[in-house]
Amino acid sequence: MPECKQPACQEKFKTMIGGQAVIEGVMMQGPEKRAVVIRNQQGELVEKTEPLKKKTGILTWPLIRGVVNFAGSMSGGVRTLMYSAEFFPEEEEEPSKFEKWLKKKLPSEAFEKAVITLAVILGVGLSVGLFFVLPILIGDGLEALLHFSVVAKNLIEGVVRVVIFLAYMALVSQMKDMKRVFSYHGAEHKTIRCYEAKLPLTVENARSMTRLHPRCGTSFLFVVMIISIVLFTVANTLLLKIDAIAALRENTRVVYNLLMMIFKIVIMLPVVVSVSYECNRFVGRHDNWFTRALSAPGMWLQNFTTREPDDSMLEVAIRSLELVLPEKEGTDKW
To answer: What predicted TM-score, i.e. pTM, was given to this entire model?
Structure first.
């Protein structure tokens, strides 16, 4: 069935409910609860819900909530992925010495938390290495050869970062195992679109919706890439107005580049994430030519990270959304 273009299928309101595709399932997070629904190997739906702690005080402040929510999303996402993987075990492998040591030293619950923490650290580390450290190293190498300005260097770093990101997305989208995950991602978007159009949550209604959504995490990642170009350039330019740093750049380029890399990753990257989060909130709350233009690259990227789902996948996404709907209608409004 073609995607619905009728007025009845258009967005009537914006919800703060969001989700994530997992292995043979969908996780949805609402204002009060997080739920994951998995279709197991027997074809049955397995449901799990958990309450969410309400954030208050400084954790809700602009430019702080972005990093807090990002960290929470990473942790929750890894935990949900690990849960979904339990339903599809691979061949048993001999535990490593490190795993045996952890299990011996920690209770089961603490062991699980330790594994999740380690997975988050490794995931963030690999992402930072691939999308930030590598472009910085390439920019440093080209600068040493061509001697261009700070602005040009940061622009080249940004272009390299975007190219790596696009190549990564294109390659991952072709992996056999990921194709089903991306189909569940499409089911998640279609279901939320159906809900935001205030249509009954049925497979038929959800099927007709577009699988692209402006408030997707893919769009957020692309915004991070673009914001990093601007903020890194501004920060570098201001730092070079300090005589000691300017002298270091002229006389000890290797030390300068190393210090700038640490500065960008440790100090500036959290700022980039925070600013990107606020930009995404702004774009998500408004619908005009300007916000549509800002969200267009991220929407295009979703052609790689989402695929058309089948009806069984839509059933999973619908059930997951139903589990997190607030008791009082409208309290999930974005």
So the answer is: 0.81
